[in-house]
């Protein structure tokens, strides 16, 4: 009995010490748990703040994307205006061709009539006298019509110039907006880089906290099981993130191909603009040719007036000759021996001879003028034929480029469809990742948030890169369109001066 009492007395202080140790261990475990929970809450608050900032940045990028879409719509409207201007110029060119063919036909008729008139100078007929003023009235009416049309063309030219000025102003505004967007995109990129550094720091802290060994909780199997679950979930999320990154790389490659196709299309549009500028120059040259033909027609009208005056003089000369013959006969019959009358007759004869010489010299001068006009008309016809050939060549080239543009648009639509399909797959994968069992993964909230944060960062980087590429492309296209326009204006001016010299 004494031994048993002694054993109980010896065992009771050991049990008390063990209980104290167990209580201390429980207190330490509870303190560690509280510290760990506090750190987790702090990390969750930081992640929430980062998510909010990323959401704000995403909204800003969406707004910029909408603005870029508006700019693209403006560019499409400008392209439509340019196409309408090309069609209008083609219609005007066709009308000018028709009018010039009519003018050439009328001039040929007038030249044939002049040749007939030169052959039959002495054979006067009332039919010709009636036909000449009728043709002159027709020519005068046509000249009035051409004058009215030239006024209308001048008005249209003024309208086109004002439209081009407005288009240039819009282009400058778009270039300024593109510069602003580039600056904002750079600022967003710097912010995203800073946020990426912060998120990397936080992601490095999370596994450190997870992997911190607790010497007082080695026997806690529940915590180890949760840690294993977290590690497996992190590995799965890393695999899915790698897959999404691969898909994003593919999308970036397709986007680059699409941008190259857009650049090719924009180069085609710049070539079409240059062709429009060359056609404008051709229209100006044709307008100058029309004015020269108008002047030549005025000269031919003056020549016809001179010929009519000449015919009147001839008729008056014939009447004077008849009267002089009658007077001579009367004088010979009345006083054949008077010397004064003979002197008068000799004077009259000399006057008639001088008038006949003057008449012949006038006829020769008119013939020379008509031959010069025919040579000039032949040269003008040759130049117009060359201009028509150039216009036909430009039309064929424009049709070929329009076909190429249609093919590129079809390829662009196919690439857009592929991009939409990949985007729907990404959204589906994100939905599948979001549909995980919350009861099974209660302690994986921070890993899911980390994954969503990484995916949102990747998405923001992708969108930012796309916006920067689009803005750089717009800026480069604006500069190239401006330089092309200046060069084509200089080329048109040089062609116009060379045509005037020839």
The number of distinct β-strands equals 0
Query: Multimeric state of these chains?
Result: single chain
Distance between the termini: 144 Å
Classify the secondary structure makeup into a structural class. mainly alpha
> How much β-strand is present in the residues?
under 5%
Main sheet properties: none
Query: Please, what is the average pLDDT?
Result: 68
Number of helices: 5
Helix content: over 70%
Unreliable residue runs? 125-132, 209-219, 436-446
Element-level helix/strand string: HHHHH
- Basic shape: rod-shaped
Give me the Rg, rounded: 49 Å
Domain CEP63/Deup1 N-terminal: 12-280
Protein name: Deuterosome assembly protein 1
Pfam family, one: CEP63
Organism: Rhinolophus ferrumequinum (Greater horseshoe bat)
Key descriptive features of the protein:
rod-shaped, 502 residues, mainly alpha
């Amino acid at each position: 009995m004494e031994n048993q009492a002694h054993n109980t007395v010896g065992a009771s202080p050991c049990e008390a010490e063990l209980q104290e140790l167990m209580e201390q261990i429980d207190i330490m475990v509870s303190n560690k748990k509280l510290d760990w929970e506090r750190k987790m809450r702090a990390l969750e608050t930081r992640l929430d703040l980062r998510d909010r900032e990323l959401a704000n940045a995403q909204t800003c990028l969406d707004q910029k994307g909408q603005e870029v879409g508006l700019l693209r719509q403006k560019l499409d409207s400008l392209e439509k205006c340019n196409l309408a201007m090309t069609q209008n110029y083609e219609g005007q060119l066709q009308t000018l061709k028709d009018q010039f063919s009519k003018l050439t036909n009328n001039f040929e008729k007038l030249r044939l009539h002049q040749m007939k008139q030169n052959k039959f100078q002495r054979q006067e007929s009332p039919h010709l006298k009636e036909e000449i003023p009728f043709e002159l009235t027709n020519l005068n009416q046509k000249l009035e019509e051409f004058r009215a049309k030239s006024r209308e063309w001048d008005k249209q030219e003024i309208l086109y110039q004002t439209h081009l000025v407005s288009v240039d102003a819009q282009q400058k505004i778009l270039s300024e907006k593109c510069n602003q967007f580039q600056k904002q995109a750079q600022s967003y990129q710097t912010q995203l880089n800073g946020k990426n550094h912060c998120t990397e720091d936080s992601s490095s802290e999370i596994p450190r906290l997870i992997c911190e060994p607790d010497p007082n909780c080695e026997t806690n199997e529940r915590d180890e099981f949760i840690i294993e679950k977290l590690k497996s979930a992190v590995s799965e999320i890393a695999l899915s993130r790698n897959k999404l990154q691969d898909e994003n790389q593919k999308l970036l490659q397709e986007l680059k191909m699409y941008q190259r196709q857009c650049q090719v299309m924009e180069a085609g549009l710049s070539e079409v603009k240059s062709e429009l500028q060359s056609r404008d120059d051709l229209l100006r040259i044709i307008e100058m040719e029309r004015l020269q033909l108008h002047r030549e027609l005025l000269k031919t009208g003056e020549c016809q007036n001179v010929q009519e005056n000449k015919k009147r003089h001839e008729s008056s000369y014939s009447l004077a000759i008849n009267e002089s013959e009658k007077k001579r006969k009367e004088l010979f019959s009345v006083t054949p021996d008077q010397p004064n009358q003979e002197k008068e007759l000799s004077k009259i004869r000399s006057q008639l001879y001088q008038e006949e010489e003057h008449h012949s010299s006038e006829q020769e001068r008119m013939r020379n003028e008509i031959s010069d006009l025919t040579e000039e008309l032949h040269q003008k016809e040759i130049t117009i034929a060359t201009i028509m050939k150039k216009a036909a060549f430009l039309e064929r080239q424009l049709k070929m480029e329009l076909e190429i543009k249609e093919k590129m648009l079809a390829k662009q639509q196919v690439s857009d469809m592929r991009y939409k399909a990949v985007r729907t797959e990404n959204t589906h994968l994100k939905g599948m990742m979001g549909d995980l069992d919350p009861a099974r993964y209660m302690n994986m909230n921070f890993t899911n948030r980390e994954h969503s944060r990484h995916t949102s960062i990747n998405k923001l980087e992708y969108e930012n890169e796309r916006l920067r590429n689009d803005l750089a492309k717009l800026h480069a296209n604006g500069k190239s369109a401006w330089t092309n326009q200046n060069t084509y204006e200089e080329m048109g001016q040089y062609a116009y001066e060379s045509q005037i010299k020839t």
